[in-house]
């Protein structure tokens, strides 16, 4: 993030924010808010597949839970079919 640039936008600058900001996939705001919303929705960041992390419900969480986790971690890396987690105990080095 360029904090100085963003602060300049918030402070008002010259009032022409639309010409200074590009959204995801090069979407530009050209005056029509509804068109901008449609184009932003069409180029939204895809949702993450969380099925390889946990089977717990994680949608519509208002307050983050605290304390010990109660779910089963499927992949500590969050990758379906990714590498296996490290073993719980170290393996012995081979001897010569």
Describe this entry's structure for a reader.
With 96 residues, this protein is mainly α. The chain contains 2 helices and no strands. The chain has helices spanning 3-11, 33-42. The chain is elongated. The termini are far apart. The mean pLDDT is 76.
Keywords:
single chain, 96 residues, mainly alpha, 2 helices, elongated
Strand and helix map with partners:
Layout: H1 3-11, H2 33-42
Task: Summarize this structure briefly.
By secondary structure, the protein is mostly helical. The chain is 20% helix and 0% strand. 0% of the residues are buried.
Oligomeric assembly: single chain
What's the story with the biggest beta sheet?
none
Distance between the termini: 54 Å
Number of strands: 0
Shape: elongated
How many helical stretches? Answer: 2
| Helix/strand structural class | mainly alpha
Beta strand %: under 5%
